[in-house]
Write a structure and sequence with these properties.
Length: about 210
Amino acid sequence: MDVPARQAEERARSFHEIMARRRTVRDFDDRPVPDGVLEWAVRTAATAPSGAHVQPWRFVVLTDPERKRRLRAAAEEEERAFYGRRASDEWLEALAPLGTDEHKPFLEVAPAVLVVFEVHKGPHTPRPYYAKESVGIAVGFLLAALHQAGLATLTHTPSPMRFLNEICDRPAEERGAYVIPVGYPAPGARVPDLERKQLDEVLVRL
Ligand code: IYR
């Protein structure tokens, strides 16, 4: 680790400063992601701890416009059902401040979309343990790595996600878990005026 104890707090503080500036972006520019960034970020994601070290993740990068178009069309179909009838009034009320709806242009406009799959037991893959938790931690690392490189992301979770297998050419034992557009914010992109909880609201010391 090689961080002397006297530097530990400063290192933790400066990492916090970087991470505190991350915001979920829904309005992307079409400027490409610089070469190599996605690969390094996926390498970082793949350093995450996983149950029994099975590493039950697969990352698919979509940049092909036709695949992104199909992804958008399929996701919007699910979201129309969600916003139109599946979501409870309580859920829709919780989402209202975010201003989300069934339109997902970012799935086509963002230069790259990372689709993250949980890998379950299959002909060539072992049974994973704590797959959801493992992949969730890996996605946290991924978002941090991309943010650190100056890229914006949106964590999108269409539900159900089976359509992702066909669009991404993945076998049945891989289950879509996250769809993450990556790129630069569009000029003038806006984010909701949200506040984060204060430390004393999230931390209990005993
Ligand atoms: N998946 C839908 C709805 C949605 C749900 C939650 I929880 C959010 O934090 C944001 C959106 C959509 O993408 O619009």
